[in-house]
Specification:
It is built from 9 helices and no strands. The protein is mainly alpha-helical. Helix 4 runs parallel beside helix 7 and helix 7 crosses helix 8.
Length: 205
């Protein structure tokens, strides 16, 4: 006599959750944020829309969680765990490396569409904006603070500077060019940002 097995609801829920993540990211990339709906995400994921509303209050919340999951997967693929800016002892080389990786990420279609959607939604929806900063941007910015502080301790960065302002010399121009799409994001551009920020604009002897 075959023993009846009780369905594993947690496994079924995880499959549904991942299908919803994938559907939300795909639809935003294909149709844009404005045309993406909870109904569309549910249909694409093969779940009822009540399932989505049981877990998330809005499509912005779905997309934010899906994007955070995408970032976690990328970090695991890159190093098997939480990402860190390398410390080889050469702060300029380390910053060039991480900015080049950031350029590649920003140029990736998988990143671009959901990131733009969440950035735009965060402007008009303070709650989404605060969560986007707290859960994604702030942890990434802290990596710069940690690396620059280590460079201070090694005598490569002068004492007394505001490390939050310092990191914006690297991340701010990248975000500006990415948002406005005025000029292409390239590795050469990333290298120039590091050179100008680290070595300044004054003539060299």
């Amino acid at each position: 006599m075959t023993e009846a097995r009780t369905p594993d609801s947690s496994r079924r829920s995880e499959r549904s959750r991942r299908a919803i993540y994938e559907a939300a990211l795909a639809l935003v990339g294909e149709a844009g944020y404005g045309k993406t709906t909870i109904e569309g995400i549910a249909a694409r994921a093969g779940v009822g829309k009540q399932t989505i509303y049981r877990w998330w209050p809005s499509k912005a919340a779905v997309l934010l969680e899906a994007f955070l999951d995408l970032a976690e997967q990328a970090a695991e693929e890159a190093g098997g765990g939480e990402y860190e800016i390398p410390d080889t002892g050469d702060v300029e080389a380390d910053l060039r490396l991480v900015l080049r990786a950031t350029v590649d990420e920003m140029n990736s279609p998988a990143y671009d569409a959901p990131a733009r959607a969440l950035t735009a939604e965060g402007v008009v929806n303070p709650e989404v904006g605060a969560q986007f900063v707290e859960k994604l941007l702030e942890p990434q910015l802290q990596l710069y603070v940690t690396r620059l502080r280590a460079a201070q301790d090694a005598g490569q960065v002068r004492r007394g500077i505001d490390l939050r302002i310092a990191l914006e010399l690297f991340t701010g121009p990248l975000a500006h060019r990415w948002l406005l799409r005025t000029l292409p994001l390239t590795h050469d551009y990333a290298d120039a940002l590091v050179d100008y920020a680290v070595n300044g604009l004054a003539p060299r002897p």
